[in-house]
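Per reviewer request, we include the raw input and output of the structure prediction for the construct analysed in the revised manuscript.
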Amino acid sequence: MRIVFFGTPQIAADYLKAILNTGHEVVGVVTKPDTKSGRGQLLANSSVKKVALDNNLCLFQPDNLDEITGDIRELKPDLFIVISFGKKISSDILAIPKFYAINVHFSLLPRYRGAAPVNWSLINGEKESGITIFKISEKIDSGDIIEQRRVKIEKDDDAVSLLIKLEKLGINTLLNALKKIESNKINLKKQNEKYASYAPKLVKEDGLVNWNFKSEAILNRARGLVPWPGAYCVWENKIIKLWKMKALENSVFQRFHPEKRLQSQRGILCKKVAPGFVAETTKKSIIVKTADGFMAIEELQLEGSRRMSSELFLIGHRIETGDKFFKD
């Protein structure tokens, strides 16, 4: 098939490389215009553009997709493949290919439509995720499903590790879908709107820890926000990024820390500490109260400083029972 590929970041470039290793012909590549980066604010090529240049592919970088409608039509494509492109494609352009336009989405649609499906799957504590290949329609991520594969979310998965698993699964799923499309052996399946949910683009504020949540919910959010914006809290009006945490149940904490040992210099008993307050510091961790237990912070990063263990952090910073790990 004659394919026009739409994409921009590294993950899209990996898919483009996989397609180039098949018998299909990539007749055109559409990616975003070059962006400025680094201290010198020099123009930098997108990952997809680099692959296109390395393989002498026909490349487009329009500010407005309508500018290249005629050029795309002249390529006489059979299929569009869109992966992490970042721009809406008009219905006029979507009508060009012989077959249609397809997208690779990193969730089990109709669950988690939108920009950050991997992140929100983890934040919401899902036990499985997957890949969906679907026909693009006017409404975002709502087109008919062509192919779908599932993957288990492990307890130690974060957004980076889960995306790596999904990328590998997605490439195999896409190549299988291309075979079916070419041989006209696909059975399109409508998405059930009843089960639709959305995964909006992340913002920095998503990383602020709400200690009134249960410990599991806090850990899930931290897993889902790697590497950006990351889970963070506020101590003495400074942001602390929380790199490594471990939940402690009330019963476990009390067993290892009898009440008689919890009397602080400020006369506050740990069992009466409200969520967001420091319950105790040990040699290797800072223990903060949550809604249903305690969170042991074992690795962190104070703004303007480097990432370090809590043990090292406590050598240079005095933190006591009753200190606030939130902003008033």
